Amino acid sequence: MPEGYLPIFIFLVLAFLFPIALLLLAKFVRPAAPNQVKLEAYECGIQAASNARGRYTVRFYIIAILFVIFDVETVFLFPWAVRYKQLGWFGVAEVSVFLAILVVGYIWAYKKGALEWV
Which CATH architecture does the domain made up of 2-112 adopt? Predict the structure, then answer.
């Protein structure tokens, strides 16, 4: 039984060593001459006006979470779409309830003003 895992082990070792070997090779091959101009942040040739690490508003995170929720929705809909004929009308009712819950959440977020960017 353990001999069946040998190819997996070899693959894992290669997958671990390959990026490390490439990074080390790149370190030895690339030119290294850092100076003040190379270390500055490039912004269309203009000096940076402020720090790039600004704070985001809470609305940004709310929209990001809503985006993730609706992506997860599509992940849950895919198996249903694959087995559509086998599930029949029960599957249609099941997905309708699922989508109705999501639509209610979307309407709630819209009424709360979470989707307005300004």
Answer: Up-down Bundle (1.20)
Gap between the Cα atoms of 97 and 34, Å rounded: 60
Rg (CA), the chain: 26
CA dist 74 and 102 (Å) reads 11
Average pLDDT, the chain: 82
The domain locations on the chain are 2-112
Q: What is the pLDDT of residues 21-57, one digit of tens each?
A: 999 999 999 887 778 777 776 656 666 666 767 777 7
Number of H helices, E strands in the chain: 4, 0
How far does Cα 7 stand from its chain's mean position?
Answer: 30
Distance CA 9, CA 15 (A): 10
